[in-house]
Automatic annotation (TrEMBL):
Location of region: Disordered: 1-25, 66-86
Membrane is among the record's keywords: yes
Protein name: DUF3105 domain-containing protein
Pfam families: DUF3105
Keywords: Membrane, Transmembrane, Transmembrane helix
InterPro entries in the cross-refs: DUF3105
Length: 222
């Protein structure tokens, strides 16, 4: 009997070709899957790495800005006026007080403070209550009718975002824009004057504060 051979076109030959085609297709699918995973991983790593870099860059910029502001705050504020502690009374009184400066930077005052947790008042507030806020370490931003409305708007935003600060109009003050803390006061040229940031950094709950940590809420609100 003659031997059996695989002839072209036989069923066995077709099965062999199909198996080879399947093996080739599976190998191609594995390569494509590995390529996809590799590219996706690179993209994710790139995004994470880029996000991490941006985060570190922003953190570094913030740290540098804070360091620069702190260094600037340690310097004297140009044009600032100062009053010694012994020149400023601290008694609680229920009667009007005549202050030697406008706006006042300290002295006897009402037992109730003005709320100074970033509070902006559209109308004038009582000096005797505002002075109590300064005693608690607040910075008081004031303006008169000569102030540029754009500067008033910018200072309003700064105050609203700063605990232990308050803002109100004081029509009889000399400068259009003035900043006051306990025993400290400066007139600035605009809201963008670098002394604004310096004054805030230096005196919001600064070393001049007679009662550091005292409340700026729970007082008079209008």
């Amino acid at each position: 009997m003659g031997s059996t051979r695989n002839t072209p076109g036989s069923a066995e030959d077709r099965r062999a070709r199909i198996q080879r085609m399947r093996a080739s297709e599976q190998a191609r699918e594995r390569r494509n899957r590995l390529l996809f995973i590799g590219v996706s991983t690179l993209i994710v790593v790139g995004l994470i790495g880029g996000g991490g870099y941006l985060y570190l860059q922003k953190a570094d910029e913030k740290e540098q800005t804070e360091a620069a502001e702190k260094a600037q705050a340690e310097k004297p504020v140009k044009g600032e006026k100062s009053w010694k502690a012994e020149e400023l009374g601290r008694d609680h009184v229920s009667t009007p007080v005549s202050y030697p400066m406008t706006p006042p930077v300290g002295g006897d005052h009402n037992q109730v403070w003005m709320n100074c947790d970033g509070d902006v008042y559209e109308k004038a507030i009582p000096d005797v209550n505002a002075v109590h806020s300064l005693e608690h370490g607040a910075v008081w931003v004031t303006h008169n009718g000569d102030a540029d409305p754009a500067d008033v708007d910018k200072l309003t935003e700064r105050v609203k975002s700063t605990p232990y600060s308050l803002m109100s109009p004081v029509e009889k003050q000399e400068g259009a824009l003035m900043l006051s803390a306990w025993g400290k006061q400066v007139t600035v040229d605009s809201a963008d004057d670098p002394r604004v940031a310096q004054f805030f950094t230096k005196y919001v709950q600064g070393p001049q504060t007679p009662e550091p940590g005292a409340a700026c809420t729970g007082g008079l609100s209008s």
